[in-house]
Amino acid sequence: MKVVGIVGSIFGIIASILAMFLTLIESTYTVGNFGLLGIAAGILGIIAALLLDKKSILGGVLLIVAAAIGVYAVLLYFLLPGALMVIAAIVKMSQRGKGY
Predict the structure, then answer these.
(1) Measured between alpha carbons, how far is 17 from 10 in angstroms, rounded to an integer?
(2) What are phi and psi of 57, to 5 degrees?
(3) Nearest CA among 88, 12, 11 for reference residue 51
(4) Distance between CA 88 and CA 100 in Å, rounded?
(5) pLDDT digits (tens, 9 = 90+) for 71-80
(6) For the chain, which terminal residue's Cβ has fewer other Cβ atoms within 10 angstroms, N or C?
(7) C-alpha to C-alpha distance for 42 and 77, rounded to whole angstroms
(8) In 2-99, where do the E strands start and end?
(9) 12 and 45 in contact (C-beta within 8 Å)?
(10) pTM of the entire predicted model
(11) What does each C-alpha distance from 75 to 42, 82, 92, 93 come to in angstroms?
(12) What is the phi-psi region of residue 55: left when phi exceeds 0, alpha when psi lies from -120 to 50, beta otherwise?
């Protein structure tokens, strides 16, 4: 599940950059300013995904927080990456006896 979390985070960073680029074309800067927050959420997601093996609860909570921040920041662009991050977090947190 670590790989799914990392892939979701990388897609989130790409989606945030895409959102920032598209706002330059459209000349509305509301999503563009929040694109940096989406990039930060993607970086937090990568760090959280790396923590999933050793501390699954902390990594899972951080992945869910990163997904929520990303969806708040760039809305529709972050839905698929956010879903991947939440799925990885829930599956890893639901496994018992590993990585508390």
Answers:
(1) 11
(2) -70, -50
(3) 88
(4) 16
(5) 998 888 889 9
(6) C
(7) 12
(8) none
(9) yes
(10) 0.86
(11) 14, 10, 25, 25
(12) beta
